[in-house]
Fold each of these.
Amino acid sequence: MPLPTWVRRRKPTGGSTERTWPEIVVYSSKWCLQSWWTKIYLHRHQVPFREVDIDVDQEAARRVMAITGGNRSVPTLVIEGYGAVVEPANGELANILSIY
């Protein structure tokens, strides 16, 4: 699926070329190791995202369960213009977000 053109959200450091990012919501949980690794990966590549803890926000937990067919699978990412990705590997995120 081709990615849409997103609004400009940040400039990378050290260059004049602008990189645009989609709005990303990461549904996660503090106890989930894969959630930690996903957030570290996004931080490392300076990808902005909003984190929602499904153990604190019950409405968010219901949203995740609706996306995953009744499971509280985390991390679940909702990416603007792409859709939902459940428990993605870093390589999958790199492909979706064109991180090289």
Note: Helices lie at 33-44, 58-68, 90-97.
Amino acid sequence: MSSSQDPVSAAGSSTDEPVFVVMGKLRKPHGVRGEMVMTVLTEFPELLESGQKVYLGEDFHEQTVRSVRPHRDDLLIAFEGITDRDEVGYYRNTMLFMDEGDFPDLPEDEYYLHDLVGMEVVTDTGQSLGELKEILVTGANDVYLVQKGEEREILIPAIEEVVLEIDFDQGTVLVRPLPGLLDGS
């Protein structure tokens, strides 16, 4: 199996609720026509296009993308019905999400990283390490943040020698921890 990089899901826990995936962070207004500078936090910025429904902030306020275009290492994004710099400024420093249901289907042996969140992480000796809570996307390799109840967090490097199998049917990630990784737990 191979993964397609994307940010980790942000909300929605039951199968009846939508799962929202972080796409970027709105930083500041740009110009006078309602555009905002957005830091891209996804490997799939092309999913943000005119007409796309997006969700802003912790309350997931629904907006429709009016336009999106590159701007240096960021994007300039505008929303339908907002054409004023001051009005769009309300969303300064707000996270922008998409509904997971709006993501395209992947080939059979591929998955999005956010699909792993909530899976149980188990060692090759059968020890449950807890639930995969978050995926930290680093430059070298991803890191799985795993937590069991109120116990301490464990950081698992997502490398071939450690992550042995991902079983979506069982909802488990099988790992072989590096020596010393679980010491003191």
Note: The longest strand covers residues 20-30.
